[in-house]
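ugh ok fine here u go
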Amino acid sequence: MKPSCHFLVSFTWLLLLSTPLAAQGIDNQTTISWIGSGSVAGYYVTKSGNKSIDLTGDSLEIMFWQDREKSGFFDGLQLLQLELSGTGIDGSGISHEPKLEVLSLQYHLGWNGNLFNFMHLQFFVSYGIGQTRFSVALQQGQTWSKNFEEQQAYSDMTSYGTNLILELTDRLWLGYSTVHVQDSQLVDYGYTQSEFSPTDYQSILIVYKWQASSNSNQRIPEVTATNR
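structure:
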């Protein structure tokens, strides 16, 4: 679990980085936004039973903006939600039903390559901060069971991935995203320590292109009044 002071410093740093490139007066800039959903995978490990349990679930991402320069470099700000769950039996014969939910604000940096004038291949890295919630239910046979209350923690997340985006119309595009996540949470339940980790997710994207920005000056026609 990250200390609250670390979270505040990270949050301030993220806000400073997330200033849109449009505010810096860059010409020939294209801005897009999207919403995407798909699947996510991860794992849960309990130290006492020395057993890894696979987690699966759903992903939801909202890209508030992605600003791309003419050179192909871009940055963006995204809200990401991951929900995972699973079930399995550890080495001690205890059944575990873990659940994990991650809500993170992600800042992206990457490069966009144009293919065949209608396809975009993007490579990016991202860093985010947010909130993680987790819980687990245990059961052994028919006589013993225990539900641990949901816990939460502030955490940071790094990831890297690839987007493939197709231009269907002038404004409405379709995309696919695959992302690898580097994040883990250690939880002490008293009798043992457990680790929750999302590992990767894939999303189908519905993309909207905003009007490309330009800082070229426009002349305002002069109006001259003539006295009669």
